[in-house]
């Protein structure tokens, strides 16, 4: 026989569960909505069959898409508006794209405007030279690009590799870039994998440059080979990174994996399953 105390306790727990479960479900769904992929992960597949590959990507539960330049252009042979509509029809959003800051910049802006994407991310340093002066010049070029994008309702940003964390004259070059670019015009996409390979701590940057990293490339790294691997198999402490995402100013995570144990689809299925823990 159930006592009144036992009844009240069970009722209280059930009531608490009724309140908490929808909240947890909402939080989980919100996290999933912010989870995307950098299409360089599927570079060969996108060139061979862009629509079919996007269908398979959507089936993995991915919601945000970031493109990369390809032999068939910025959208793998599809038009900017066509790319947007295909993604939308599959329940995904064309959110961002990797581009070059080069002589085709005006055309890149036109295509981005037509696609409706939110971010344009410069994928590599536009000029060579691992010097403080060069990084200051690049920061100015980024500020100008940020102004151009802002006029179009687009956000400009930069994606790092390992080499930006080298030093020149006692200064870390990536920090020169951060210190000389305007936070409201240049939005950093931090590739966490390359940061740890460079021997730096992403959390240190979250703390010192709070809110400067709205985009992440989430990439676990084999620290010996210096190449990407499936989540949980490398040297990036992913749970720790996610615990500090607010300091980063995080809006969207783009998973990128450049090397795979078997196939990009198998690796991405593993990565998506791993992310459901958080």
TrEMBL record:
<dbReference type="InterPro" id="IPR050312">
    <property type="entry name" value="IolE/XylAMocC-like"/>
</dbReference>
<keyword id="KW-0413">Isomerase</keyword>
<feature type="domain" description="Xylose isomerase-like TIM barrel">
    <location>
        <begin position="56"/>
        <end position="277"/>
    </location>
</feature>
<dbReference type="InterPro" id="IPR013022">
    <property type="entry name" value="Xyl_isomerase-like_TIM-brl"/>
</dbReference>
<protein>
    <submittedName>
        <fullName>Sugar phosphate isomerase</fullName>
    </submittedName>
</protein>
<dbReference type="GO" id="GO:0016853">
    <property type="term" value="F:isomerase activity"/>
</dbReference>
<dbReference type="InterPro" id="IPR036237">
    <property type="entry name" value="Xyl_isomerase-like_sf"/>
</dbReference>
<dbReference type="Pfam" id="PF01261">
    <property type="entry name" value="AP_endonuc_2"/>
</dbReference>
């Amino acid at each position: 026989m159930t006592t009144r105390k036992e009844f009240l306790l069970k009722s209280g727990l059930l009531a608490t569960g009724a309140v908490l479960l929808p909240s947890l479900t909402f939080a989980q769904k919100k996290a999933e909505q912010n989870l995307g992929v950098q299409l360089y992960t599927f570079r060969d597949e996108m060139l061979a069959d862009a629509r079919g590959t996007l269908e398979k990507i959507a089936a993995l539960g991915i919601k945000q898409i970031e493109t990369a330049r390809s032999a068939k252009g910025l959208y793998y042979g599809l038009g900017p508006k066509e790319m947007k509509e295909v993604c939308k029809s599959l329940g995904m959003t064309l959110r961002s794209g990797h581009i070059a800051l080069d002589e085709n910049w005006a055309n890149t802006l036109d295509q981005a405007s037509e696609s409706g994407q939110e971010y344009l991310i410069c994928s590599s340093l536009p000029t060579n030279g691992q010097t403080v002066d060069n990084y200051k010049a690049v920061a100015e070029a980024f500020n100008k690009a940020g102004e151009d994008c802002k006029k179009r309702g687009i956000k400009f940003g930069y994606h790092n590799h390992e080499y930006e964390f080298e030093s020149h004259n006692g200064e870390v070059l990536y920090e020169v870039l951060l210190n000389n670019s305007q936070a409201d015009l240049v939005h950093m996409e931090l590739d966490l994998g390359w940061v740890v390979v460079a021997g730096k701590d992403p959390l240190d940057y979250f703390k010192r440059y709070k809110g400067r990293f709205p985009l992440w490339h989430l990439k676990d790294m084999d620290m010996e080979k210096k190449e990407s691997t499936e989540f949980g198999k490398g040297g990036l402490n992913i749970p720790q990174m996610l615990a500090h995402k607010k300091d980063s100013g995080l809006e969207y995570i783009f998973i990128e994996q450049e090397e795979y144990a078997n196939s990009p689809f198998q690796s991405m299925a593993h990565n998506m399953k791993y992310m459901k823990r958080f």
